[in-house]
Amino acid sequence: MEKLTNKEEEIMQVLWKLKKAFVKEVVVELPKPKPHYNTVSTVIRKMEDKGYVTHEAFGNTHRYYPVVSKENYRKRYFSNATQNYFENSYKNVVSFFAKEEKISADELREIIKIIESKNNQ
Prior knowledge:
Structural class: mainly alpha
Number of helices: 6
CATH superfamily of the domain at 6-66: Winged helix-like DNA-binding domain superfamily/Winged helix DNA-binding domain
């Protein structure tokens, strides 16, 4: 499956949130400056070509909805990012966030508890 562009990801976030939406509803949810209706429509149709969304027709208008779940996309994206930027090491990912002060010691302890509880099951 072809990777989404930043603009496509932004629109996918809206579609995941709304579940189903017409283009005009997507435009309302996007941050300012709002893109033009035709621009959003074109991007959504490209996303449909890539297999991320589909639509149901209501006369001449379409209501779009995601085909790929947010969870599945997150797994694929994070897996690729881990492989490409962190030598396929989740330890390197966590170290990166610790060095960037994006994760606290308390949060790390919480993560350790989650890992230990999974190991004890």
